[in-house]
Amino acid sequence: xxxxxxxxxxxxxxxxxxxxxxxxxxxxxxxxxxxxxxxxxxxxxxxxxxxxxxxxxxxxxxxxxxxxxxxxxxxxxxxxxxxxxxxxxxxxxxxxxxxxxxxxxxxxxxxxxxxxxxxxxxxxxxxxxxxxxxxxxxxxxxxxxxxxxxxxxxxxxxxxxxxxxxxxxxxxxxxxxxxxxxxxxxxxxxxxxxxxxxxxxxxxxxxxxxxxxxxxxxxxxxxxxxxxxxxxxxxxxxxxxxxxxxxxxxxxxxxxxxxxxxxxxxxx
Amino acid sequence: xxxxxxxxxxxxxxxxxxxxxxxxxxxxxxxxxxxxxxxxxxxxxxxxxxxxxxxxxxxxxxxxxxxxxxxxxxxxxxxxxxxxxxxxxxxxxxxxxxxxxxxxxxxxxxxxxxxxxxxxxxxxxxxxxxxxxxxxxxxxxxxxxxxxxxxxxxxxxxxxxxxxxxxxxxxxxxxxxxxxxxxxxxxxxxxxxxxxxxxxxxxxxxxxxxxxxxxxxxxxxxxxxxxxxxxxxxxxxxxxxxxxxxxxxxxxxxxxxxxxxxxxxxxxxxxxxxxx
Amino acid sequence: xxxxxxxxxxxxxxxxxxxxxxxxxxxxxxxxxxxxxxxxxxxxxxxxxxxxxxxxxxxxxxxxxxxxxxxxxxxxxxxxxxxxxxxxxxxxxxxxxxxxxxxxxxxxxxxxxxxxxxxxxxxxxxxxxxxxxxxxxxxxxxxxxxxxxxxxxxxxxxxxxxxxxxxxxxxxxxxxxxxxxxxxxxxxxxxxxxxxxxxxxxxxxxxxxxxxxxxxxxxxxxxxxxxxxxxxxxxxxxxxxxxxxxxxxxxxxxxxxx
Lengths: 268, 276, 258
What we know:
Largest interface: B-C, 63 and 66 residues
Number of domains of chain B: 2
Radius of gyration of chain A: 19 Å
CATH class of the largest domain in chain A: Alpha Beta
CATH architecture of the largest domain in chain A: 3-Layer(aba) Sandwich
Oligomer: heterotrimer
Shape of chain A: globular
Structural class of chain B: mainly alpha
Number of strands of chain A: 10
Order of helices and strands of chain B: HHHHHHHHHH
Number of strands of chain B: 0
Order of helices and strands of chain A: EEEHEEEHHHEHEHEEH
CATH superfamily of the largest domain in chain B: MetI-like
């Protein structure tokens, strides 16, 4: 099995430093992401979605199991696996331009190359004219675009996204979803697309965007089921088809009970 | 705006006044307030009737002008020298200790308790020992200012480094930054607001230590000059020196505050301020 | 702090003290340098002859009185300034400019006005204790939720009742912070004031002797280095105790705060 990303029997157990209590966040999770595939991860609160992404990104080491990228085990974060964080993690002291330039800067690009790449992606995400703004001057949607531009400027082979659209309102979210699809290549030839691993709470979002949805259960986190989304591309703009609705209902029924329990059991 | 639940922001005047005009208005208010103070002072001095006990504002102003042409300049210079040297050393040492302590856990285990142990012993408490060690000289205020300055900058810098959002570090790693780059391009800018707040606090305590140290343990500077005039009962001159101390202290703090605002203009939030 | 984490500093300091003691004794410098056993000796001596306890209590008494006066004057003024914005804007430049003058700079004036019997020191302490109260009480009053005030007024509360039942409790956390800072300033200022008086006032008879004055006489009369170090340690210990006590008080009076 050699996808772009291979997760093999990932397990992660956290031990609380204070109480010594052991929390099993993930147990024996295995899956693959093919080179041009868009895969979403959904599940109730506390199912370990974000932990899973952190493991694939290389920020956290698994208790057991491993992650392979192009068949090679990963040892840490890498520019080829770009990450978009839930609250964007933009550098507040850098302008939009400064943020987007950071990746090329880190990799030793010359000043002109840095500028050029940054401008290109800033234009691509629709932030032209905002290069000199600081993150705190931007709206949520604009910050998301800036984070996306920053991610893309490094031209990663894999996009890892942790609930990137959770912090914006519904209307903005729909628009940003369409932009994401456009940038990803929903309307283009499949070979142009990158592998994406997308964590989200929104089942409708997962169905709309992905080729495949991994449904996680909680306590401990594990893969309940894998659902292939057999909707034709390009999909942009085609939100509420009956077929999509059936997928959404199906997945929701898989997690509904656990989601209800999570409301009571999860602490903030 | 109609439903403001806090009065934390002064409501704008009903007439269409822009921000610069508002600042002018604020300045005018300050001037008026100061005028009121001077008026009250004048009234009090007249009521007391004794120009030694409570010199009038006019007398103090004259004394001040006299002094400006005479001793005041060298006093200010001496004080600034004490302050400059002590503060620079204190901040340097404080930053160094903070850097080392946040980098090496072993050193942190020693430095932190040492700092916590010494911090309650204020610079003031060191005055007699300092006098014993250095005699009445410039070394006393410089040492005391140095000692006082170390703590706020150390504490705030450590706090600043520790509060750096790990997600920002992750983002930088993900973008391919080396550890050195993470230090210079992420940790340092993120900690900067706290470092500056610490520098301001350090300046505040340094200023107070300066006055106390010069008063008791040196033979030059504004603090020393206070008692020099007191021995001649030249209270108008004493008040002139007091005012000088107040004005200079305020000026320095304002300068540093402006610097702080300029450097951290990317940040809408503020940092640790222990005096509030 | 787990026992493992406490081990390293504890070990380090024990070793440091031992080295310090043996070095001074070995090189025969007991007369010039302070050393641990010397400090202990000084402690025993000054506790036995009562000077340490007496002077410390005198200083603390002045601190408490100054603190109380500072609170009594500062809190109402602060609350007024914070709650009634025009007054706040008018008075704050005055307060800010006075605040930037270090308390001990007033010693010459205070000595002249109040004499050397210790009231001058008390004035300095009160001055130092006053401002943190004003500042913090003003901030606390400024951030009062107007809705609460309106709710109280709508329920028929008189002005006085509104102040008592809404304004003061809302401002309490900030006032307590002000109290903590004020205490710390007051303690620092009393030592400074007493030191200054001890050093600069050459005429005899200075009223009750505080810790600062004791330090000066130890410096110039006895020339006892160990005594000085002892007093420094005492000052530090009291600072710590004050801070801990104030924090505990703050926590117990405002349990709803993190």
